[in-house]
Amino acid sequence: MTRTKLAAALALSAAFALCLAPSAAARAPQGDAASNHAKGFRQARQVRAESRQGSAAFEFEAGGFSYHIAANGNGRRTKGNKTRRFNLRFDGPDFMEGLRFAVYEGDLLFACELNDGEAAGGLVVRLEQPSMRALWRQPVPTFNLGEPLREGHNLYLTGLGFVARLDLRTGEYVWQHDALTKDVDAPRGGVSLGDFNSFETPELAGETVLFRERPVYNRRRTLVVNKKTGEIIRIE
Asked: Which residue has better confidence, 51 or 71?
């Protein structure tokens, strides 16, 4: 084979291999999506209620198990013919209207929307696996809960007039602002916060976390908060 023919054959072979191999750009989004999915919360699906209390029960699958949780917090985890029962232990006559779940260090995290017929609120629970024992339970003092955002051991929560950072190891709030439906002033510049009724999923930007308001009458503001201290820096 002449040198010219050999070079042409090698070039053709390289081009063919390049076509078969997925590019780095094509592979990257899949990895990013998998990472985001592992950290993100998902909505449990509503099913027909099994009791008079509440309007629905909730079901989902995680870690090879199937979960069913009634509106009153009574739940069961099943795999094959094995069943383990548990209870989220709501206070008083509360029943669940919405449920988001995520996996964290092998345990289950629940963000529950609750109602007692007169007032609404929320609850975040960490259930140890495989015992289904609650490691901690933290009430959320408002309703209209948005999708939480997890960053490492931190969980950023939102609700009606409420934003907070919670430590997933202890279940304690690191900081919180729970008066965002009142005309109070931010620490810097005396900016009136006005009313924040609901938020989109929080976003991270360097040393800050952005709480974007859901559009209301074409108004959409963003609350910029220091991740570490919880200081309200500005409103955009």
From this structure: 71
Cβ contacts of 224-230, under 8 Å, gap ≥ 24 = 225/163, 225/177, 227/154, 227/165, 229/175, 230/165, 230/174, 230/175, 230/176, 230/177
What Rg, from alpha-carbon coordinates, does the chain have? 24
Helix H or strand E segment including 29: helix 24-39
* Domain boundaries along the sequence of the chain: 40-140, 143-236
The CA distance from 173 to 135, in Å, is 15
- Rounded distance between C-alpha atoms, residue 116 and residue 107, angstroms: 27
What is the model's pLDDT at position 159? 93
**What is the longest distance spanned by two Cα atoms in the chain?**
88
Report d(CA 71, CA 170) in Å as an integer: 26
Express each pLDDT in 181-213 by its tens digit: 655 444 444 344 567 888 999 999 999 999 999
HSE-CB of 81 using CA atoms within 13 angstroms: 0
Q: CA angle 119-125-126, nearest 5°?
A: 175
pLDDT tens digits, residue range 116-146? 877 789 999 999 999 999 999 999 999 889 9
Cβ-proximal residues to 157 (8 Å cutoff; 6+ apart), any chain: 111, 122, 124, 140, 145, 146, 148, 163, 164, 165, 166
CATH topology classification for 143-236: Thrombin, subunit H (2.40.10)
Three-state DSSP class for 98? strand
Residue 5: CB partners within 8 Å, gap ≥ 6?
Answer: none
